[in-house]
UniProtKB/TrEMBL annotation:
<keyword id="KW-0560">Oxidoreductase</keyword>
<feature type="domain" description="PA14">
    <location>
        <begin position="123"/>
        <end position="284"/>
    </location>
</feature>
<dbReference type="Pfam" id="PF10528">
    <property type="entry name" value="GLEYA"/>
</dbReference>
<feature type="signal peptide">
    <location>
        <begin position="1"/>
        <end position="19"/>
    </location>
</feature>
<dbReference type="InterPro" id="IPR002938">
    <property type="entry name" value="FAD-bd"/>
</dbReference>
<keyword id="KW-0285">Flavoprotein</keyword>
<dbReference type="GO" id="GO:0016709">
    <property type="term" value="F:oxidoreductase activity, acting on paired donors, with incorporation or reduction of molecular oxygen, NAD(P)H as one donor, and incorporation of one atom of oxygen"/>
</dbReference>
<feature type="region of interest" description="Disordered">
    <location>
        <begin position="50"/>
        <end position="96"/>
    </location>
</feature>
<dbReference type="InterPro" id="IPR036188">
    <property type="entry name" value="FAD/NAD-bd_sf"/>
</dbReference>
<dbReference type="InterPro" id="IPR018871">
    <property type="entry name" value="GLEYA_adhesin_domain"/>
</dbReference>
<keyword id="KW-0732">Signal</keyword>
<protein>
    <recommendedName>
        <fullName>PA14 domain-containing protein</fullName>
    </recommendedName>
</protein>
<feature type="compositionally biased region" description="Low complexity">
    <location>
        <begin position="70"/>
        <end position="96"/>
    </location>
</feature>
<keyword id="KW-0274">FAD</keyword>
<dbReference type="GO" id="GO:0071949">
    <property type="term" value="F:FAD binding"/>
</dbReference>
<dbReference type="InterPro" id="IPR037524">
    <property type="entry name" value="PA14/GLEYA"/>
</dbReference>
<feature type="compositionally biased region" description="Low complexity">
    <location>
        <begin position="50"/>
        <end position="63"/>
    </location>
</feature>
Length: 696
């Protein structure tokens, strides 16, 4: 099954099939038009379906579990029949499907496939072709077996003289004469158009119901389509049915297959308006469209952007909680635009400081301001720079994923990815699950895997080992949150790049209540963290205004890092894609690290959206990999190095005259309009992938 088909099944033109208590709720009456041959009918979708309807819709005289598990192993289903029928799925036991039990959208059912039930029924088989087949008779019978399958139809014929065999990958063998299969599920239409149901082969009988009749009213007399074996001519039955659906509706579907003697089978397909086959006997869907590894800013932002366009994802995080380490705090105009698009910008603005009027470069030796950027020129512009510690942005992203993800985002903590792999149809991750003292190893499959798991990316290492071109810079980065009233007393700017060969860094206001972030690079290598922290008072005394002693300021949190400039050889290997720090890292001077990651996932989201909604070919994902890597290599990497060298290796006494960037700022300061345009301009590190959509 190709990628585009998979997205159709799972999110856009979705066969969102509910197992057990997982039922969508439909409250809006919608008229849809259907045609069977030359007949035209109107189907009313006003029926309301809730979790309490779960048992009756299967008509299996069975009860359903009321548990709302958020983790469902594919070796079981959520059906507990009164006849104690065994259960199965078509997936191997090593594959686990994860999803919420209630169904606001198809993906919340996890697209488990169709519920199906096996019945042994020799009584109605009065001949070898099941000519007296009455499907509604099974409403009163208990099944001998129930399961869930993503693969529909096929041939059910004994081999090697056997009279039994498996169905839909079951571990149990069944008699393959005189039986029936009852299937039911839901079709979810993201796009409006004509959906086609085809039964090109039925041996012996297949009945189809679509719409409200698929619930409890189904009978041989009101089937939308039926395909019956022609005994006199020995020709298998066939049928075709079409239905026009508006976008965004659920519609139930049911089909019952009857087999008489000598083995048989059927073929059944559902085709979307764009021609993609959503389900069939040779179409099997991965449980997720996209698995995102890493619940950091890149992973959560990507999941949120995809969910806005009805593309579901699961986010796997190895930690038991969100990342709260001290990292980025300021994000340029390009990142602001992506934050707005994701719907999180208002939340960031509310949590941020009210104003951030200027950024300057200061000489450490005398704290003289060398040059500054007047950000007050754009303080009312909606695209202005964003200021907030990254840990708080991650919290906002996670809150939006939970509250506004519409059931399309499933974030799983304590899920450590150890390996990735792929074949021509899907990709997978091997995961160690550690939760409440329990350990489990599972393999999860998807259409695509996106590694957003940071600089220590397990996804990248699985692809490339420890080979990561680039270099580690000769500094130990020390980052701390500081409360010190001297910043306000000395009237320091919101952001202060400190220029010095020994005590370079950045001091910036980062939060309400007088919170500042002090970051510096220690040029000594090879010390322990304790030894680096023992050197901190000297750095702080040199850099902070008033040259304070440790008892004059308060440090609340500290993190130490090695800093690198590196870029992987390829952002995409088949169905496995890298973004953000998993693909590249740079030193933090100038704020290029997180901003570039934000632009990566914004662009990747556009590529997935374009491809899965038929607006672009699959090679747009290759375009992402090439363009975003080229941007890092050509612009981000060299600029971040220049930003670092400007404060760490330049001569503080002459840098104002020798640095080309400072020369540009001097010219811009002559005209406020020019400076404002400079502060808001589209950056060369941005790229609009929607220009590769077919409609453009």
């Amino acid at each position: 099954m190709n990628s585009k088909t998979l997205i159709s099944v799972l999110a856009c033109l979705s066969v969102g099939v509910s197992a057990g208590p997982c039922k969508p709720v439909t409250s809006q009456a919608t008229q849809v038009t259907s045609t069977t041959g030359e007949l035209s009918t109107s189907i009313d979708l006003a029926t309301t379906v809730s979790a309490s309807d779960a048992a009756s819709t299967t008509e299996l005289s069975s009860k359903t579990t009321e548990e709302t598990n958020t983790e469902i192993a594919t070796t079981t289903t959520a059906v507990d029949t009164t006849s104690e029928a065994p259960t199965t799925t078509t997936e191997e036991a090593t594959t686990t499907t994860i999803g919420a039990a209630q169904c606001p959208t198809p993906s919340a059912c996890n697209n488990l496939g169709f519920d199906w039930a096996y019945y042994s029924n020799p009584n109605q088989n009065t001949d070898t072709t099941y000519s007296s087949f009455v499907p509604e008779s099974f409403k009163q019978d208990n099944p001998l077996y129930v399961g869930t399958t993503r693969q529909i139809g096929g041939l059910f014929q004994p081999s090697n003289g056997a009279t039994t065999g498996p169905i839909y990958g079951s571990t149990q063998n069944f008699p393959l004469d005189y039986f029936a299969l009852n299937h039911h599920g839901y079709l979810y239409s993201c796009d409006a158009g004509t959906y086609k149901f085809d039964i090109p082969y039925a041996n012996d009988a297949l009945y189809l119901w679509v719409g409200d009749k698929a619930y409890g009213q189904w009978s041989s007399g009101n089937a939308a389509a039926k395909a019956l074996y022609n005994q006199p001519d020995h020709i298998a039955g066939s049928a075709h049915f079409e239905i026009d659906l508006p976008a965004g509706v659920y519609i139930p579907i049911r089909f019952v297959y009857g087999q008489a003697q000598y083995g048989g089978g059927f073929y059944f397909t559902v085709t979307a308006p764009n021609g993609q086959v959503l389900v069939g006997n040779d179409v099997t869907a991965s449980p997720y469209i996209i698995i995102i590894v890493g619940a950091g800013p890149s992973g959560l932002l990507l999941a949120l952007l995809l969910a806005q366009k009805n593309i579901p994802s699961v986010v796997l995080e190895s930690w038991p909680h969100l990342d709260t380490r001290l990292r980025a705090t300021q994000y340029g105009v390009p990142a602001t635009r992506v934050f707005r698009r994701a719907g999180i910008l208002d939340g960031i603005r509310k949590a941020s400081i009210a104003k951030f009027p200027s950024i300057c470069w200061r000489r450490v030796s005398d704290h003289e301001k060398l040059i500054s950027l007047d950000l007050s020129l754009v303080e009312d512009d909606p695209d202005r720079m964003t200021i907030l510690p990254l840990g708080e942005i991650i919290q906002i992203l996670y809150q939006h994923c939970v509250e506004k993800g519409q059931g399309l985002i499933d974030v799983k903590f304590n899920h450590e990815v150890t390996n990735v792999g792929q074949d021509d149809k899907s990709a997978y991750v091997d995961v160690n699950i550690k939760d409440e003292g329990k350990k489990e190893k599972v393999r999860l499959t998807a259409d695509y895997i996106v590694g957003c798991d940071g600089a220590s990316s397990a996804v990248r290492r699985s692809l490339f080992g420890r080979d990561w071109p680039g270099h580690t810079l000769p500094y130990r980065f020390v980052v701390q949150n500081v409360y010190y009233d001297g910043f306000q007393k000395h009237n320091w700017d919101g952001g202060n790049y400190m220029v010095d060969n020994d005590h370079w860094g950045l001091i910036a206001r980062r939060g309400k209540g007088g919170l500042w972030r002090v970051t510096y690079g220690d040029p000594v290598r090879g010390l322990t963290d304790e030894e680096y922290l023992a050197r901190r008072p000297a750095h702080m005394k040199a850099m902070l205004p008033g040259h304070p002693d440790p008892d004059q300021y308060r440090i609340e949190q500290t993190n130490l890092y090695n800093i690198h400039n590196r870029c992987v050889e390829s952002f995409k290997v088949g169905r496995i894609i890298l973004a953000g720090d998993a693909a590249h890292v740079c030193n933090p001077m100038g704020g290029y690290g997180c901003m570039t990651a934000v632009l990566d996932v914004g662009g990747l989201a556009d590529c997935f959206i374009g491809y899965y909604h038929g607006l672009a070919d699959e090679d747009i994902l290759d375009k992402y990999a090439k363009v975003r890597r080229d941007i890092f290599v050509k612009y981000v990497d060299p600029r971040s190095i220049k930003n670092l060298n400007r404060v760490a290796t330049s001569d503080p006494q002459t840098v104002l005259e020798t640095d080309k960037f400072f020369g540009i700022l001097k010219d811009l300061q002559k005209d406020k309009r020019d400076m404002k345009a400079f502060l808001l301009k589209v950056s060369s590190i941005e790229y609009d992938f929607t220009k590769h959509y077919k409609s453009n």
